[in-house]
């Protein structure tokens, strides 16, 4: 089986700034690929290339075995790659079902008298959310009244329903509390079990390790490696992410600093 | 440390593939949901929202209540606000204002403003006139109206397109871009008028006679003169439609509020029939007899009939429950006493104060008036920003007076607010006669008393018996007020119209209390009941409105003999209704409408899911300019000629109407229907102020006050509504 997405030595330059270089990884159906990196590591650039916002300057991107290059987010969406951004995903004052179908509302009636099939839209929204394990109280509820985790879940369910093959999640847990994060991680697994390839971008290795099948670590625009789960332990992951030796140094400094203030 | 904590949570569902627990079987639930009610084991988080709660989460509810209150106010203080001669001019003013307000509200929901919308109305009218004017020395293009009307629509749409495109391409705020358009249009209007005929009026549209004027005049400027249409059975039709409509709405409220029986109890049906028969009998008796005593007897029969019918309906359809305890909580008891006390105080005051006196309460020339007004203003400016929310003002004032003095800052805040309010009241009183003050005090005390009673009913909602008692007391207070007003008042409308309305309200209140004490309220969603209930409500409201329309559009021989003033209905109002309905449908039911809310609420998100944001916004600007074109034509045909200044400066009135109607200034929330109600409110103020014989120079101050009140009220209601969800 070919990978849904295969990236080989992808690079992106903004003028003379190297935003991303030598990034290699792959995304397979029914697997979660975690992209880890600290702030400024190049995670956003990475997503934007996949989602069609930016184009890569070097390397190859293969979608289902064919080389591809996206000129717009629409094009990426048409190829089944859906990005869920942390806070830009929803219109807070609109109801859940309207958000769910925004841009692709189911219609009925004969042209030019066509209107939204409200009943069907509400029913499908509820069903699809239930399939993800989310029991929404009332699809008429404005999204603004949902919690952060629920909001992410609406976005994920929407992407799944509209036939996404690859789901890119940008820091879905970073603004959430402990419990909420756990809920979102469950949705990630639910999406994976439905046969999607998931790209989970995070700076938290503790969130990434339990759900990921493959890990790619970015540091200062460079890939620090691309590991299947069997080849890396949680502690190694944490160490690599924070830059290994740098963290040791920091720990040392903090501990000695703490001792002094005592 | 934090990491390991998160870890534990994650560990709970980790490692291997966890199986997702799907909470319900979606397919099976949905497929047979037609046949069976909603799932019998409801989600514990889902508390059923009652009829009134659901009403309150609509954005236009504040405007509707406000429109009712303002109408009632002007009905009370003017001579003719209750009849066709007073209402039809309000409709005429509301029509052109409302069409624009609706269009502007849609644009505002989409997150933009159009400051050129006012000037545009005049501009497109002028364009049409110039296009049809005879060719001559000072002439126009001499075209047929069949060409000129589509041509001016093209001009209008291009102006809208330019507005939208410039806003989208440059990314500048629409405020600035359309301000520029406003000045450009204003300059063009004046320039072209002067160029064409060296005058600020551009000539007349009836120069197009023989070139389509006859036809289009009918479309845009037909009038229906009420006095030319008399219809003898008008009052019978009116009564049947309005009373039938009210009955249907009451039935709808019952259907939505009470839980259905598993199996209907047919014993209730004859009771319902008997009640309805009593009502009809009472009405017929009243109709066929004269004299006050007969009216009273008929009133009692009708009231009894309503109670019996309502109880019969409930007995037939809804689940009974044991009436609850009569245990009063202290809060309920205090509030009931305060409410009854206020109503009593109102009546006593009204009797004590001499009603014939025309004496001023305070002397206008008094040396303290102006200093006090200035002081009030200063204190108001100091206190207002410090008061937080409305609730924060009233809670300590009603609940715990000592809290006012517990700390310096609180004392300072509320103290200065209080002194400010008192001084303002003093400032206003120099205008009031003793008689006027009496009316105001009576009205305010009675209304506040009833409101306190309403909160007592709400507080007692869990103890059925107590609630029935409080509701009975409230109904009795309403009925007592009705009789008191009839006794004290000299004006016919207070003695007859207000009296009957209050009686009906009192009876409905009592029956509502009675039925809800003995029958079970619905606690779960039930699709059948919802469907039937909303159908009944819609039919009832339409019937009642049709009844009112019949009364407004037709007259009777008796009225003509009494020499009623001439009143006419303009087709503009029909345009207003059609436009509002079309735009509301578009907003709520079409894809474009959804996109409008989306681009106003979060443009980035909308764009990300594939909504063409720029195109949507440009189309919104084009809708506004198309509305301006329609209004321009309506004005041109109504006035026959337009001045170059027509419409300038009205754009803010459109925005006010939209905001009063519940549209959010920041976009993403609002309703077109609300904006149309906002326009009605403004039209009522514009017409009501001179009708009440106030100095109409002050109407803008009144509009300002309405705007502020409306925004505060809408904001408050929206917060409450969010909490209810």
Strand order of the largest sheet of chain A: 6-9-10-3-11-12
**Quaternary:** heterodimer
Instruction: Report how far apart the termini of chain B are.
Output: 37 Å
First and last CA, distance of chain A: 59 Å
Q: Biggest sheet of chain B, strands in spatial order?
A: 1-4
* Beta-strand segment tally of chain B: 4
Could you tell me the strand content of chain B as a percent range?
under 5%
Strand content of chain A: 25-35%
The major β-sheet of chain A equals: 6 strands, mixed
Identify the overall geometry of chain B: globular
Largest sheet of chain B: 2 strands, antiparallel
Structural class of chain B: mainly alpha
Low-confidence stretches of chain A: none
Report the radius of gyration of chain A as a whole number of Å.
Answer: 20 Å
- Fraction of residues in helix of chain B: over 70%
Strand tally of chain A is 12
| Average pLDDT, all residues of chain B | 80
SS summary, helix count of chain A: 9
Taking Cα atoms only, what radius of gyration of chain B do you get, to the nearest Å? 30 Å
Residues in helix, % of chain A: 25-40%
Number of helices of chain B: 29
Q: What key phrases describe this protein's structure?
A:
heterodimer; A: alpha/beta; six-stranded mixed beta sheet; four-stranded antiparallel beta sheet; 9 helices; 12 strands; 37% helix; globular; B: 725 residues; mainly alpha
Structural features, described:
Chain A is an alpha/beta fold and 262 residues long. The mean pLDDT of chain A is 82. In chain A, helix 5 (148-161) runs parallel beside helix 6 (178-193). Chain A has helices at 43-51, 73-78, 96-101, 118-131, 148-161, 178-193, 205-211, 234-241, 245-261, and strands at 5-14, 17-27, 32-37, 58-63, 66-67, 81-84, 107-108, 115-116, 166-170, 197-202, 214-219, 222-228. In chain A, strand 9, helix 6 and strand 10 (197-202) form a beta-alpha-beta unit. Chain A is globular and about 65 Å long. In chain A, the strands form three sheets. Chain A has a six-stranded mixed beta sheet with strand order 6-9-10-3-11-12, with helices on both faces. In chain A, strands 2-1-4-5 form a four-stranded antiparallel beta sheet, with no helix packed on it. A two-stranded antiparallel sheet of chain A has the order 7-8. Residues 1-46 and 396-408 of chain B have low confidence and may be disordered. In chain B, the strands form two sheets. Chain B has a two-stranded antiparallel ribbon with strand order 1-4. A two-stranded antiparallel sheet of chain B has the order 2-3. Chain B has helices spanning 2-11, 26-31, 51-56, 61-77, 84-109, 117-132, 145-170, 174-197, 213-221, 234-257, 268-287, 292-317, 330-352, 369-383, 390-398, 403-406, 408-429, 434-459, 464-488, 492-518, 527-553, 557-561, 571-589, 591-601, 603-608, 613-639, 651-660, 672-691, 699-724, and strands at 201-204, 223-225, 568-570, 641-643. Chain B is built from 29 helices and four strands. Chains A and B meet through helix 2, strand 8, helix 4, helix 6 and helix 7 of A and helix 1, helix 2, helix 24 and helix 25 of B.
């Amino acid at each position: 089986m070919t990978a849904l997405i295969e990236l080989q030595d992808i690079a992106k330059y903004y003028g003379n700034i190297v935003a991303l270089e030598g990034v290699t990884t792959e995304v397979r159906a029914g697997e979660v690929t975690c992209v880890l990196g600290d702030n400024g590591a190049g995670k956003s650039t990475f997503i934007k290339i996949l989602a069609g916002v930016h184009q890569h300057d070097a390397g190859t991107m293969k979608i289902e075995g064919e080389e591809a290059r996206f000129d717009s987010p629409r094009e990426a969406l048409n190829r089944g790659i859906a990005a869920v951004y942390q806070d830009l995903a929803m219109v807070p004052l609109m109801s859940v079902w309207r958000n769910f179908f925004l841009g692709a509302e189911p219609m009925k009636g004969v042209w030019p008298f066509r209107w939204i099939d409200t009943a069907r839209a509400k029913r499908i929204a509820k069903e699809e959310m239930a399939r993800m394990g989310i029991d929404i109280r009332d699809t008429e509820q404005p999204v603004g009244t949902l919690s952060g985790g629920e909001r992410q879940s609406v976005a994920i369910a929407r992407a799944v329903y509209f036939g996404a093959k690859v789901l890119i999640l940008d820091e879905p847990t970073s603004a959430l509390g402990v419990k909420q994060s756990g809920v979102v991680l469950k949705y990630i697994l639910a999406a994976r079990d439905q046969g999607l390839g998931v790209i989970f971008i995070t700076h938290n290795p503790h969130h990434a390790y339990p759900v990921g099948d493959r890990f790619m670590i970015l540091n200062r625009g460079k890939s620090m490696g691309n590991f299947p789960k069997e080849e890396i332990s949680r502690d190694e992951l944490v160490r690599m992410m924070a830059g290994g030796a740098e963290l040791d140094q920091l720990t040392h400094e903090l501990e000695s600093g703490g001792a002094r203030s005592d | 440390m934090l990491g390991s904590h998160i870890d534990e949570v994650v560990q709970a569902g980790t490692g291997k593939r966890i199986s997702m627990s799907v909470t319900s079987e979606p397919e099976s639930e949905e497929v047979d949901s037609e046949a069976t009610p909603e799932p019998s084991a409801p989600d514990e988080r889902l508390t059923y929202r009652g009829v009134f709660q659901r009403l309150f989460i609509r954005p236009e509810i504040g405007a509707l209540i406000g429109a009712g209150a303002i109408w009632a106010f002007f009905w009370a203080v003017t001579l003719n606000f209750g009849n066709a001669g007073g209402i039809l001019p309000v409709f005429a003013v509301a029509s052109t204002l409302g069409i624009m307000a609706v269009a502007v509200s849609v644009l505002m929901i989409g997150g933009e403003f159009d400051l050129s919308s006012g000037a545009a109305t005049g501009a497109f009218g002028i364009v049409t006139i110039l296009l049809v004017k005879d060719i001559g020395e000072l002439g126009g293009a001499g075209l047929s109206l069949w060409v000129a009307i589509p041509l001016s629509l093209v001009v209008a749409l291009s102006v809208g397109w330019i507005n939208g495109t410039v806003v989208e391409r440059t990314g500048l705020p629409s405020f600035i871009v359309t301000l520029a358009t406003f000045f450009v249009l204003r300059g063009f209007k004046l320039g072209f008028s002067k160029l064409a005929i060296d005058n600020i009026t551009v000539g007349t549209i009836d120069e197009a006679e023989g070139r389509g004027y006859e036809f289009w005049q009918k479309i845009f400027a037909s009038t229906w003169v009420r006095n030319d249409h008399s219809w003898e059975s008008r009052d019978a039709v009116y009564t049947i439609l309005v009373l039938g409509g009210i009955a249907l709405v009451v039935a709808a409220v019952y259907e939505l509020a009470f839980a259905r029986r598993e199996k209907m109890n047919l014993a209730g049906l004859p009771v319902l029939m008997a009640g309805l028969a009593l009502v009809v009998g009472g009405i017929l008796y009243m109709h066929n007899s004269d004299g006050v005593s007969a009216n009273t007897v008929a009133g009692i029969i009708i009231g009894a009939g309503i109670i019996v019918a309502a109880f019969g309906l409930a007995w037939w359809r809804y689940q009974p429950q044991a009436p609850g305890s009569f245990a009063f909580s202290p809060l309920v008891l205090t509030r009931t006493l305060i409410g009854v006390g206020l109503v009593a105080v109102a009546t006593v005051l009204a009797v004590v104060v001499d009603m014939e006196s025309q004496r001023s309460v305070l002397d206008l020339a008094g040396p303290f008036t102006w200093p006090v007004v200035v002081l009030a203003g200063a204190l108001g400016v100091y206190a207002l920003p410090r008061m937080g929310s409305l609730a924060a003002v009233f809670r300590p004032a009603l609940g715990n007076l000592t809290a006012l003095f517990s700390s310096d800052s609180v004392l300072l805040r509320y103290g200065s607010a209080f002194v400010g309010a008192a001084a303002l009241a003093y400032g206003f009183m120099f205008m009031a006669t003793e008689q006027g003050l009496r009316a105001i005090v009576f009205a305010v005390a009675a209304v506040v008393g009833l409101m306190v009673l309403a909160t007592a009913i709400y507080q007692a909602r869990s103890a059925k018996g107590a609630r029935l008692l409080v509701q009975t007391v409230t109904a009795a207070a309403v009925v007592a007020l009705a009789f008191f007003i009839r006794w004290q008042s000299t004006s016919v409308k207070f003695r007859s119209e207000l009296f009957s309305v209050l009686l009906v309200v009192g009876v409905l209140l009592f029956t509502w209390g009675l039925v809800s004490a003995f029958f079970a309220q619905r606690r779960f969603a039930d699709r059948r009941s919802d469907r039937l209930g909303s159908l009944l409500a819609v039919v009832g409201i339409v019937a009642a409105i049709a009844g009112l329309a019949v009364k407004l559009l037709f007259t009777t021989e008796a009225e003509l003999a009494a020499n009623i003033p001439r009143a006419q209905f303009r087709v503009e109002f029909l345009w207003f209704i059609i436009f509002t309905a079309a735009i509301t449908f578009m907003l709520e039911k079409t894809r474009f409408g959804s996109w409008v809310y989306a681009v106003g609420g979060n443009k980035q998100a909308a764009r990300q899911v594939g909504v063409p944001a720029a195109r949507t916004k440009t189309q919104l600007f084009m809708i506004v300019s198309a509305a301006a074109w329609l209004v321009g034509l309506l004005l041109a045909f109504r006035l026959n000629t337009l001045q170059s200044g027509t419409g300038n400066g009205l754009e803010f009135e459109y925005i006010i109407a939209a905001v009063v109607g519940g549209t959010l200034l920041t976009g993403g929330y609002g309703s077109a229907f609300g904006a149309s109600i906002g326009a009605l409110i403004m039209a009522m103020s514009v017409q009501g102020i001179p009708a009440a014989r106030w100095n109409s120079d002050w109407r803008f101050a009144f509009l300002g006050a309405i705007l502020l009140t409306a925004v505060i009220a809408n904001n408050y209601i929206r917060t409450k509504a969010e909490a209810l969800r």
